[in-house]
């Protein structure tokens, strides 16, 4: 099992390292990353989410709506709690807090999801990862995008916080990274078969999403000074330990079956993702603490995932 975990996490380290070296050596401009970011967040990530969710059979989606609820609520609670901690305790701005909280609350399904869950859950692995992505896209993404828009817009004393949030939310739901996963979920629930030709046509893009995301993250890290501080330590604890425990509590409280509890906890024990950093890059918000958190969370993940697997999967 240890080899499986290391094998699932190893691509993260390699992808980050390649991007980091490319940025440090000046092979790729690590300051002007807008083009790569647009490619990733406007096309690659939304299309990957849409295909993954839309291909999920209806008879799998419907029984697992409670699993979507458990994962989505867990992500949302941790995201909001992390945002409060980032602003009140560590004094980050709203935009920086959003980026950091997304880094904490949204696990790295794009790169780790399938390699980690396939040996554990077999043919269900891809479906479970799609369900987890759908949960994050619906429960967390629109709120985070709205708050990111609020945090980077020019202050207007005449506009209330509520109106600013609603304005940001309207803008968020228009972005492909939100509406394409939602369309994918509706597609799956209605039961429309996904043409094999469509999945084949988008396969080169969807398969490259995780790698491009990690390369871009490494590129962003190369422009920052990596520093391990109290915030990084607390954030890693929240992501790697508190989130799966929170998910376990919510799952038991709702009363889902034991197999679903195990699936939810393992999915939420996956380390931090690059989504926070690439979301922030769209508005030029790149807190160094997010890069350090991603790095430490991924390294510590070897230990924390092993512990949760030892507890739940004898």
Characterize this entry briefly.
This protein has 314 residues and is an all-alpha fold. It is 79% helix and 0% strand.
Q: Which stretches are low in confidence, meaning pLDDT under 50 for 5 or more residues running?
A: none
Radius of gyration, in Å, reads 18 Å
Share of residues in helices: over 70%
Overall, the morphology is: globular
Report on the architecture of this protein.
- The protein has 314 residues and is mostly helical.
- The chain has a single domain (1-312), classed as Na+/H+ antiporter like fold (Up-down Bundle).
- The chain has 15 helices and no strands.
- It has helices at 2-24, 34-54, 58-61, 65-88, 94-105, 109-121, 125-139, 141-152, 161-173, 176-190, 196-222, 230-254, 258-268, 275-281, 288-312.
- Helix 1 packs across helix 11, helix 2 runs parallel beside helix 10 (176-190) and helix 11 (196-222) packs across helix 14.
- The chain is globular, with a radius of gyration of 18 Å.
- It starts with a helix and ends with a helix.
Note the main attributes of this structure.
Mem_transp_PIN-like, Transporter, Na+/H+ antiporter like fold, transport, transmembrane helix, membrane
Topology:
Layout: H1 2-24, H2 34-54, H3 58-61, H4 65-88, H5 94-105, H6 109-121, H7 125-139, H8 141-152, H9 161-173, H10 176-190, H11 196-222, H12 230-254, H13 258-268, H14 275-281, H15 288-312
């Amino acid at each position: 099992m240890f080899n499986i975990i290391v094998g699932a996490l190893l691509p993260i380290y390699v992808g980050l390292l390649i991007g980091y070296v490319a940025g440090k050596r000046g092979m790729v401009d690590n300051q002007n990353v807008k083009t790569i970011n647009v490619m990733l967040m406007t096309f690659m990530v939304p299309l990957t989410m849409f295909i993954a969710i839309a291909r999920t059979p209806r008879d799998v989606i419907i029984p697992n709506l409670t699993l979507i609820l458990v994962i989505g609520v867990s992500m949302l609670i941790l995201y909001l709690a992390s945002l409060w901690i980032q602003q009140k305790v560590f004094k980050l701005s709203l935009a920086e807090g959003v980026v950091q909280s997304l880094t904490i609350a949204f696990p790295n399904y794009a790169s780790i999801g399938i390699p980690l869950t396939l040996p554990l859950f077999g043919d269900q692995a891809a479906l479970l990862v799609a369900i987890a992505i759908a949960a994050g896209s619906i429960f967390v993404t629109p709120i985070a995008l709205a708050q990111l828009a609020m945090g980077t817009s020019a202050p207007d004393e005449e506009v209330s916080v509520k109106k600013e949030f609603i304005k940001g939310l309207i803008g968020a739901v228009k972005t492909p990274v939100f509406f394409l996963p939602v369309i994918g979920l509706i597609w799956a629930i209605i039961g429309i078969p996904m043409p094999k030709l469509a999945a084949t046509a988008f396969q080169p893009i969807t398969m490259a999403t995780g790698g491009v995301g990690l390369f871009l993250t490494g590129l962003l890290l190369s422009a920052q000074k990596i520093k391990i501080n109290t915030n990084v330590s607390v954030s890693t604890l929240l992501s790697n330990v508190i989130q799966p425990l929170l998910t376990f509590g919510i799952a038991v409280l709702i009363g889902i079956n034991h197999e679903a509890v195990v699936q939810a906890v393992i999915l939420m024990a996956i380390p931090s993702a690059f989504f926070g950093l690439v979301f922030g890059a769209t508005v030029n918000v790149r807190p160094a603490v997010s890069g350090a958190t991603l790095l430490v969370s991924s390294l510590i993940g070897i230990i924390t995932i092993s512990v949760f697997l030892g507890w739940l999967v004898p």
